[in-house]
């Protein structure tokens, strides 16, 4: 018995710069044959308007044109991979798309090749799965990515911005997050390529490089702190120790000073004399009149004070600033990066820590 019974069509101009990609039709969509026409679609229209976008300028479609039984999408998925007869990734643990619905993915691929949008806004986990081959919308939303050619629809090179599906607004706290993502989408729709800012990060320095870095921090003439560039500081900790401390004096540079090296015999990056010299340099920088900036600085400062460092001229904390300006939005560093920068979802870029070994190691 086939499951492939499409009941809707896509709508919107075929010259649209934005494709709004949903999951599957519901009862209202099945009755009218139009995507995003029910309550969730109406709320989507309001959020688009708040973000400076218009539904009429977007191309609207779904991953599936077939309505799931009782609106339960996982009814369309096989429990075991061998039952699916394909190599596509699962949408959820042990849930693989039923082979009868593979033509739906081919249809979506043809649509996107024809439209050639600047941006696909992937609304929800299913849409993100189709475009990026990944799941976990809460971790990836807001971060622009380029679709790989190995994704379920087989179309690479398309810029994708995932966000929550409007049906998720049963949790109303997600609404300002979706609006913020749509505002970012409005900016990203102006061009088709993924534009990443250039970053220069100095890692694993020598003692001489740390000394040179310190000399370059201090300006020839001191300016009032309101005119000077702040020095951003971040610590990574392991157990009760600072494992790494990082400094950024400009938007595109960073200097990383490690202390722990888990795979060395004594787990120390420096020898004793080098570490004493490096810690004296860090102490001088922290007490200098250079303005300091943290994200969730209460966490960093407790570890710095525990290791006997003193701090001077700490002027701002981006977590507190975010909460003061936008109390309705999350304030974690990952969220700030997804909204205010064009970085990838960097929290997911490292598969394992230095102290985590694979079996083949």
Give a quick summary of the entry.
With 361 residues, the chain is of the alpha/beta class. It has helices spanning 27-32, 39-50, 81-84, 102-115, 125-132, 137-140, 175-188, 207-217, 272-287, 297-306, 318-325, 333-340; strands at 18-22, 58-62, 77-78, 96-97, 119-123, 145-146, 159-163, 200-202, 231-238, 241-250, 253-258, 292-294, 314-317.
Describe the structure.
The longest helix is centred in the C-terminal third of the chain and has 16 residues. The chain is α/β, with parallel strands linked by helices and 361 residues long. It has two domains: 171 residues, Uracil-DNA glycosylase-like domain (Uracil-DNA Glycosylase, subunit E, 3-Layer(aba) Sandwich); 149 residues, Ribonuclease H-like superfamily/Ribonuclease H (Nucleotidyltransferase, domain 5, 2-Layer Sandwich), CATH 3.30.420. The chain is elongated.
Layout of helices and strands:
Layout lengths: L17 E5 L4 H6 L6 H12 L7 E5 L14 E2 L2 H4 L11 E2 L4 H14 L3 E5 L1 H8 L4 H4 L4 E2 L12 E5 L11 H14 L11 E3 L4 H11 L13 E8 L2 E10 L2 E6 L13 H16 L4 E3 L2 H10 L7 E4 H8 L7 H8 L21
Parallel strand pairs: 1-2, 1-5, 5-7, 8-11, 9-12, 12-13
Antiparallel strand pairs: 3-4, 6-7, 9-10, 10-11
Helix pairs in contact: 8-9
């Amino acid at each position: 018995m086939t499951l492939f019974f499409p009941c809707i069509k896509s709508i919107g101009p075929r010259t649209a710069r934005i494709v709004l990609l949903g999951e599957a039709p519901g009862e209202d969509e099945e009755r009218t044959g139009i995507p995003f026409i029910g309550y969730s679609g109406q709320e989507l229209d309001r959020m688009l308007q708040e973000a400076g976008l218009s539904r009429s300028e977007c191309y609207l479609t779904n991953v599936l044109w077939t309505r799931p039984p009782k609106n339960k999408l996982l009814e369309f998925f096989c429990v075991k991979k061998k039952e699916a007869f394909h190599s596509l990734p699962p949408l959820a643990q042990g849930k693989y798309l039923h082979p009868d619905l593979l033509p739906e993915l081919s249809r979506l691929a043809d649509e996107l090749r024809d439209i050639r949008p600047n941006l696909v806004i992937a609304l929800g986990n299913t849409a993100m799965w189709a475009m990026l081959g990944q799941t976990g919308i809460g971790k990836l939303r807001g971060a622009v990515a380029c679709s790989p050619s190995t994704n379920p629809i087989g179309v690479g090179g398309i810029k994708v911005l995932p966000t929550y599906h409007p049906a998720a607004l049963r949790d109303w706290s997600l609404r300002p997050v979706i609006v913020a993502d749509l505002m970012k989408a409005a900016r990203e729709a102006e061009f088709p390529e993924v534009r990443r800012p250039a970053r220069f990060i100095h890692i694993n320095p020598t003692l001489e490089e740390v000394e040179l870095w310190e000399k370059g921090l201090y300006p020839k003439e001191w300016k009032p702190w309101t005119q000077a560039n702040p020095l951003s500081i971040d610590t990574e900790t392991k157990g009760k120790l600072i494992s790494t401390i990082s400094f950024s004096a400009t938007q595109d540079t960073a200097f990383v000073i490690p202390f722990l090296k888990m795979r060395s015999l004594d787990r120390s990056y420096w020898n004793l004399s080098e570490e004493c010299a490096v810690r004296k340099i860090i102490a001088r920088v922290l007490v200098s009149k250079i303005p300091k900036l943290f994200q969730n600085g209460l966490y960093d400062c407790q570890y710095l004070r525990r290791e006997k460092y003193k701090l001077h001229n700490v002027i701002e904390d981006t977590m507190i600033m975010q909460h003061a300006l936008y109390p309705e939005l999350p304030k974690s560093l990952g969220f700030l990066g997804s909204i205010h920068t064009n970085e990838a979802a960097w929290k997911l870029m490292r598969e394992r820590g230095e102290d985590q070994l694979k079996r083949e190691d």
